[in-house]
Structure formats: C-alpha cells, structure tokens
Amino acid sequence: MGEQKPELNSQTLVLLHFHSLIMNLKKDELLKIYYYMKLIRAIDDRASKLYRQGKLYGGVYSGWGNEATAIGSAWALEKEDILAPLQRDVGATLVRGFTPAKIFAQYMGKKTGYTRGKDLNLHMGDLKLGVIAPISMLGETIVVCSGIALSFKLRREKRVVLTYIGDGGTSTGLFHEGMNFAGVHKLPLVVICENNQYAYSTPLSKQTALVDLVDRAKAYGIPGVVVDGNDVLAVYEVTKAAVENARSGKGPTFIESKTMRMRGHAEHDDAFYVPKQLLEEWAKKDPIDRFEKYLRNHKILNKTIQSEIETRIEKEIEEAVQFAENSPWPEPEEALEGVYAD
Ligand SMILES: Cc1ncc(C[n+]2csc(CCOP(=O)(O)OP(=O)(O)O)c2C)c(N)n1
Q1: Has this prediction a pTM greater than 0.85?
Q2: Does ligand 1 have an atom closer than 6 angstroms to the CB of 168?
Q3: Contact, 235 vs 68, CB < 8 A?
Q4: CA 20 to 30 Å from 314, out of 6, 170, 178, 259?
Q5: Atom 20 (ligand 1): residue with closest C-alpha?
Q6: CA distance 40 to 46
Q7: Domains and CATH numbers, the chain
Q8: Which atom of ligand 1 is nearest to the CA of 194?
Q9: For residue 39, what are the contacts with CB-CB under 8 A and spacing of at least 6?
Q10: Ligand 1 centroid to residue 139 C-alpha, Å
C-alpha cells in the first residue's frame, strides 16, 4: 500500500499494484463498483443464453473477465467527460447511466434500444450520457476521440475523453495517427489498451513483436502505464491519475491493461484456439472474485449485503429482459430517421 499518487512520467513503465487513491473511495462507492461488475457479468451471462435461444440479433460480444478494466476506468470520469467504449466495455456504459432494459432492447433490435433498432446491436451510444457509440473499424475511435479532445482544448473546457482499444487494434494505422495527433497537441485523451492476449484467433505474439504494448507510448512521446487489468482498484487508480493529468492540460496517457478474453471473440466463437490451461490460469485471477475478497477482508462486504446485491441484480435482469421482449419493433417508415443529420 503506497501513499503517493502514481507518477506518470513520459516513458515510465510502472506495474501499479497499490491502492493509494482508494482511500478517497467511500464504502458505498466501493459497493457500487462491485454491483456494476456483477451486473455487467449477469447481463453478459443472460445475453449469451438469449443468443443461443435465437432471441438476439447480430454478434454478442462478452466483456467476461474485463469487468475490472471497464468499470474501474469509467469510475474515474466526471459527468462532463466523454466515454467512447469498444466491444468489451458495455460495463463502462452502466457507470454512465445505461440501463439493462435498454441494453437488452438494443441487443434484440427493438425500438426502445439506444439506436431504436438500427445498426449493429453493438453500436450503441447516448450523447446525453456522454457516450460515443463504438465504431467497428478498429482504430477509428481513437481518431474521433482525438478530435473531440481537440475541441475541448480549443474551447478551453476542462473535459477529458476516455476510450479503449484492443491489443489487435493497436496495430492499425488509424490508432497510430490518432495517438500521434493527441501527443503532438497534448490533448486531454486517455486511451486504455485492453491487452486480452487474443485478437479474434490471433495471439499477441503473432501480431506484434512487442511484449509490452505500453512501449507504443514512447512513439508518441506520452506517458505509458501498465496496470493489472483484473484489479479494479488499480485500474481506477491509474485512470484517475491519467484523467487528472489530462484535465490539467498535461496531455494524453496510454494505459496497458493486462487481462484475458475469457470467452470467444463473440458468442458464435467457442475459442477452440485458446489453450485451456491459459484460461484456467486466468480464471484464478477473476476480477470479481478478487474484488469480493478485498471487500470482505476490509469488512465492507458480508453475506447479507452480497445476497441483497445478487437478488437485486436477478430482479433487474428479469425485468430488463421482459421489457425488451415486450418492446415494439421499429416501423419500416422509421428506417431513415436519425441516420443522417436532419
Ligand atoms: C480495421 C479493422 N480490421 C479488422 C476488423 C475485424 N475485427 C473486428 S474485431 C477484431 C479483433 C479485435 O481484436 P482486439 O483489438 O485485440 O480486441 P478484442 O476483440 O480482443 O477485445 C477484428 C480483426 C475491424 N473491425 N477493423
């Protein structure tokens, strides 16, 4: 347990594993973080079942194993900031105010979903909640977010953009262009690379000669930080430091979150190409189990509170699925509404 804030010097690589800022998180905040981690896992679990029942359309991309990264990072933002998640970060949208009911409606292509039944189910955003919808072309989100961050800088607004990229996504041209631009202009941008070891079926070693993706930060002259992506408090801590840095005009940070993709690329994929032993090793580092232990050791969580949270989540999921199933389909004549600027 260290007492200083993590220092984000350019090209400093630190494996942060202590919880100095955590002292700032109150008991009810820690329990809320735990609740969101359990909620997104319950959403993922139910979505996987609904997919197998043929009730969901398009791909279902699970964030199983990524809960600490998605929720710990989103927790570090202020209301006025912008969040631009990718396929593994639906958990981050819950922190911004997304609801299970609208998420299931989105997955089912219903009119009550975030995009009112249009586009791929994954592409959900809500500008009122400061959430930019994921963009499928990998790397594109970094460029868009650099642009948003530039607008904040030009308007002298003390706002920050937080976005994500997969390990595979860091090898795209657009990623480099966006990162370079953000570095040159010292933009208020925080980029979290979810290094979950696989880009679809391609292991890290087959798509880059780098061992630590954080080394990419050197190319842009910006701070790079490595974090244990299965430790929600460590993720919160490094993101909070990076967000504060960005807000105070010191420019972007690149964070490599080391974690593991515990399911296939999406639910159609059984990930036969991932060694079982690797999954077993990572299962022992499950982010929810770890946080549960931390909360118990610190006497923040006990059996009664845990069961209250689990019962609440079960009820919320049931009601959300009911809402989505009972929601109407979009009308054909609405197909072009909200697609182009009016
Ligand atoms: C430019 C581009 N190339 C290829 C794809 C197809 N594609 C979608 S997701 C994906 C794998 C992404 O892997 P990674 O960035 O590591 O993220 P992960 O899915 O592992 O979280 C690929 C190749 C794409 N969407 N965009």
Answers
A1: yes
A2: yes
A3: yes
A4: 259
A5: 199
A6: 10
A7: 15-328 (3.40.50.970)
A8: 21
A9: 91, 94, 100, 313, 316
A10: 9
Q: Which amino acid is at 276?
A: K
- 138: Cβ below 6 Å to ligand 1? yes
3-state DSSP assignment of residue 149: helix
Give the C-alpha separation, 157 to 199, whole Å.
36
Question: From the CA of 199, how far away is ligand 1's center (Å)?
Answer: 6
**DSSP label of 24:** G
Which stretch of DSSP H or E encloses residue 154? helix 140-154
Give me ligand 1 centre to Cα 134, in Å: 12
Number of separate helices (H) and strands (E) present in the chain: 12, 8
Residue 136 Cα: closest atom of ligand 1? 25
Q: What is the pLDDT along the chain (342 residues), one digit of tens a residue?
A: 333 444 554 444 344 444 555 558 999 999 999 999 999 999 999 999 999 999 998 889 999 999 999 999 999 999 999 999 999 999 999 999 999 999 999 999 999 999 999 988 889 999 999 999 999 999 999 999 999 999 999 999 999 999 999 999 999 999 999 999 999 999 999 999 999 999 999 999 999 999 999 999 999 999 999 999 999 999 999 999 999 999 999 999 999 999 999 999 999 999 999 999 999 999 999 999 999 999 999 999 999 999 999 999 999 999 999 999 999 999 999 988 888 877
